[in-house]
């Protein structure tokens, strides 16, 4: 159906209707802008929510300890991804649909303006033709009336006997002139009428229908564009639905990963102190007591009391935890506050319960091993690069790497020394007794003992400490023996790992120190076969007993490979043997040739 034939007389109505279509497009534009704003705001609020509840950097390790906390973290990650999909909806709507709507509005305004101008021009032409017709009709009407009056005047004059022949002839000539003028006006009117009718037929059958058809095409194009844009909006949302469903599936999977049994086990692993359960409290017979220890009247280790304070009745600590706790709902405390502690741990973690101390030392040793492995890989890369530079000086100066290689070697030695120190702490811990031991009653005779076996082992495990006299009364304390200093450990710890001490049983603590000193000099009692050769990369001055000095480029025999402590046993050409830093030499083993 055509607007030109069906709505030939509704030009003004059609003009108003097309303007309403443009107004709708502009309103649709505002709708899309508001929709995008809502999507972006929703995504932003979701991300703020995730950020406010996700763990801080220092809390990430604690979140991984429990399945419910770790899975909640996974839910937060999925929610963050879901928020990103809402941003995708807003960005695609702005970049595609909104841009197309604005372009459509601009095109429609231009097209409508042109169509209205064409319609106005056609309307003006018809009005002009009608005006000419009206003017010619009025001229004809006027000429016709004047011709009739002239005819009446001639008839009256011809009938009047009083008028002369000349006057009658004059009246007759005037009548003839007016009749001729009337005939001319009539002919002009007829011609103009025919022309106007033709113009009017063209106006309503050709010119205006053409204008109407253009406006109809514009309106139908607008409607089709709106249809495609609405579908495009739906397609944009449908495109992110699979990803949103994936996020939801991830949340469901996270919920399935929560395990109450595993979390209960994790709580035991984290907070288990390793102390034995206190024994029954003995009867205090005051009449038989000879020594009364008022500092620990009930015989319970101080750590046990500290435990009870830290879990229930210590209101000050609870208030501190409420203020300083972080993580999800503030449930996690600082990693330095573990169960019994309210302050930072010592270097050897001796202020922690035995089980927690062992875990902390192992964790520290693992960190050093990872760092040493990383530095070693970096060193190997620099050595390979140096060899490339030596073989092809055009690629670079090999001497430029010397300083970096030397710094790397020093760093590896430092890390190995630190690792050996913590390994020594761990060895001391494994060698000493449980800090609680058997419960002693300070008011009973058992509390005044003749240096129990456990305390003897604890004190004889470290050289250089004075032994406890056999008849000296000893009262239990919960303090641990101090670990050896760095200098002592570098000398003694290395010997424990690499040297072969005498295996005779230690009968008493006085002989124990002598046995340890004897082990320090027992290097060459057992012969070592030659398993390879090595070349010194740097100068090394022997600083510890058991190590040997070497000069850069010196060739030596390898007797024992590095066992992970950073030292290799070598034999020099003068038959002297000892340990050198593995990072200072380049080794070649004979078994490599066999392969």
UniProtKB/TrEMBL annotation:
One of its GO terms (cellular component) is cytoplasm. Residues 292-304, 453-463 have a biased composition (Polar residues). Keywords: Cell membrane, Coiled coil, Cytoplasm, Endocytosis, Membrane, SH3 domain. Residues 475-494 have a biased composition (Acidic residues). PROSITE patterns: F_BAR, REM_1, SH3. Residues 351-428 form the REM-1 domain. Residues 529-590 form the SH3 domain. It is found in: Cell membrane; Cytoplasm. It comes from the Eukaryota. This is Formin-binding protein 1-like isoform X4. The lineage of its organism: Eukaryota, Metazoa, Spiralia, Lophotrochozoa, Mollusca.
């Amino acid at each position: 159906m055509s607007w030109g034939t069906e709505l030939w007389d509704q030009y003004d109505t059609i003009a108003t209707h097309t303007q309403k279509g443009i107004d709708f497009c502009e309103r649709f534009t505002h709708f899309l802008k508001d929709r995008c704003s809502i999507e972006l705001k929703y995504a932003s609020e979701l991300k703020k929510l995730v950020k406010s509840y996700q763990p801080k950097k220092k809390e990430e390790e604690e979140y991984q300890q429990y399945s419910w906390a770790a899975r909640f973290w996974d839910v937060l990650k999925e929610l963050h991804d879901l928020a990103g999909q809402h941003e995708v909806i807003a960005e695609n709507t702005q970049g595609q649909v909104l841009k197309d709507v604005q372009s459509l509005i601009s095109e429609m305004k231009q097209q409508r303006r042109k169509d209205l101008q064409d319609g106005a021009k056609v309307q003006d032409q018809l009005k002009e033709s009608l005006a000419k017709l009206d003017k010619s009709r009025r001229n004809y009407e006027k000429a016709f009336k004047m011709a009739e009056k002239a005819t009446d005047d001639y008839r009256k004059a011809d009938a009047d006997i009083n008028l002369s022949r000349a006057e009658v002839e004059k009246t007759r000539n005037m009548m003839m002139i007016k009749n001729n003028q009337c005939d001319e006006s009539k002919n002009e009117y007829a011609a103009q009428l025919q022309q106007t009718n033709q113009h009017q037929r063209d106006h309503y059958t050709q010119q205006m229908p053409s204008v109407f058809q253009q406006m109809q095409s514009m309106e139908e194009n607008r409607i089709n564009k709106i249809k495609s844009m609405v579908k495009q909006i739906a397609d944009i949302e449908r495109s992110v639905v699979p990803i949103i469903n994936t996020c939801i599936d991830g949340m469901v999977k996270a919920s399935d990963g929560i395990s109450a049994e595993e979390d209960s086990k994790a709580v035991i692993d984290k907070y288990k102190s390793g102390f034995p359960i206190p024994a029954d409290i003995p009867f205090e017979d005051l009449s038989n007591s000879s020594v009364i220890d008022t500092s620990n009247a009930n015989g319970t280790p101080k750590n046990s009391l500290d435990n009870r304070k830290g879990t229930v009745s210590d209101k000050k600590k609870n208030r501190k935890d409420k203020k300083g706790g972080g993580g999800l709902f503030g449930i996690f405390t600082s990693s330095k506050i573990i169960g019994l502690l309210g302050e930072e741990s010592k270097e050897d973690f001796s202020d922690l319960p035995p089980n927690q101390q062992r875990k902390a030392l192992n964790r520290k040793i693992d960190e050093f091993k990872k760092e040493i492995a990383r530095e070693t890989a970096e060193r190997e890369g620099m050595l390979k690069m140096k060899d490339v530079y030596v073989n092809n000086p055009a690629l670079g100066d090999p001497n430029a790497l010397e300083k970096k290689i030397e710094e790397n070697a020093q760093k590896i030695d430092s890390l190995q020394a630190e690792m050996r120190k913590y390994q020594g702490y761990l060895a001391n811990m494994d060698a000493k007794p449980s800090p609680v031991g058997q419960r002693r009653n300070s008011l009973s005779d058992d509390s005044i003992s003749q240096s129990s076996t456990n305390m003897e082992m604890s004190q004889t495990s470290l050289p250089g400490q004075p032994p406890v006299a056999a008849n000296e009364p000893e009262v239990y304390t919960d303090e641990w023996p101090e670990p050896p200093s760095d200098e002592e450990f570098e000398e003694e710890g290395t010997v424990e790992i690499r040297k072969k001490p005498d295996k005779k049983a230690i009968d008493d603590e006085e002989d124990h120190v002598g046995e340890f000193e004897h082990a320090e000099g027992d290097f060459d009692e057992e012969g070592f076969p030659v398993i390879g050769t090595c070349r010194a990369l740097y100068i090394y001055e022997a600083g510890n007993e058991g190590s040997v000095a070497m000069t850069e480029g010196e060739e030596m025999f390898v007797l024992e490979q590095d066992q992970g402590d950073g030292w290799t046993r070598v034999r020099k050409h003068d038959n002297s043997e000892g340990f050198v830093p593995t990072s200072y030499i380049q080794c070649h083993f004979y078994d490599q040739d066999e392969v």
